[in-house]
Write a structure and sequence with these properties.
The protein has helices spanning 2-20, 34-41, 45-51, 134-141, 157-165, 175-183, 214-229, and strands spanning 26-32, 55-61, 75-80, 88-93, 97-101, 119-122, 152-154, 170-174, 188-189, 201-206. With 230 residues, it is an alpha/beta fold. It has two domains: 2-94 and 200-229, D-Maltodextrin-Binding Protein, domain 2 (3-Layer(aba) Sandwich), CATH 3.40.190; 97-189, D-Maltodextrin-Binding Protein, domain 2 (3-Layer(aba) Sandwich).
């Protein structure tokens, strides 16, 4: 009976919040991955704070999915196929995957030149979930004879890009994560004619029964607007 009792209290708490919080005042708890926070959200969050100064954002950064009810999370951004039980999901951004390197490295002329460089692998997600890998990109590029398993393996997408910025090798970058670094010329995209779209995408997620709370509506709308402006 305890789950039902807890669910009843949660609904009661939510009802009280809706009665007293018909504004943007208060704390908004947002869950995102550490890499997404560092590379995409934090460089932009000041614009939300300027638009909604009465909303205090609390970031919960974790690689693992959190329990929105138990941890009192309001809204989040997740990377995947768009299906998370108990949560409403709206697609925010699709993503491409491509090699990047430091501008200081000699420019590679064709994908076969990767054989002479260290490959940096993003292992922040399991490849069995459809997460793009070097092996898949090389196959799309029509390159053989390169060991796709060798190189530097890192389980954080932001650290993957930082390793490439510092010249430690060629990273297989996620376009959303790498966008600002490429724009600032900290990274250079290689082989732009080769297009490889990820099967995964970014989604805004929240509890359906909380969708009408003003703070959640404001932050969701802001995220979607920022995604189209990038």
């Amino acid at each position: 009976a305890l789950p039902n009792i807890r669910a009843g209290f949660d609904r009661l708490t939510l009802g009280l919040e809706e009665l007293k919080e018909g504004s943007l005042n208060g704390v908004l708890t947002v869950t995102v991955s550490p890499a997404f926070a560092a590379k995409w959200l934090l460089p932009r969050i000041e614009r939300f704070q300027a638009a909604c100064p009465d909303t205090d954002v609390r970031l919960d950064t974790s690689l693992k999915p959190v329990d929105f009810v138990a941890q009192r999370v309001d809204i989040g951004v997740r990377y995947g196929t768009g299906n998370w039980p108990g949560l409403a999901a709206e697609k925010m951004m699709d993503e491409e995957v491509f090699p990047v390197c430091s501008p200081a490295l000699p420019r590679l002329k064709n994908p076969a030149d990767l054989a002479a460089h260290t490959l940096i692998h993003d292992q922040s997600m399991d490849s069995s979930a459809g997460f793009p890998t070097w092996e898949a990109w090389l196959r799309k590029a029509g390159v053989s004879g390169i060991s796709a398993r060798r190189g530097l393996k890192i389980n954080n997408s932001a650290a993957v890009l930082q390793a490439a910025i510092e010249g430690h090798g060629i990273a297989l970058a996620r376009s959303v994560m790498a966008h600002d670094d490429i724009a600032a010329r900290r990274l250079v995209r290689l082989f732009p004619k080769i297009s490889f779209s990820s099967a995964l995408a970014y989604y805004v997620v929240y509890r359906a029964d909380c969708a009408g709370l003003p703070r959640i509506v404001a932050f969701r709308d802001w995220l979607l607007k920022e995604a189209t402006a990038r």
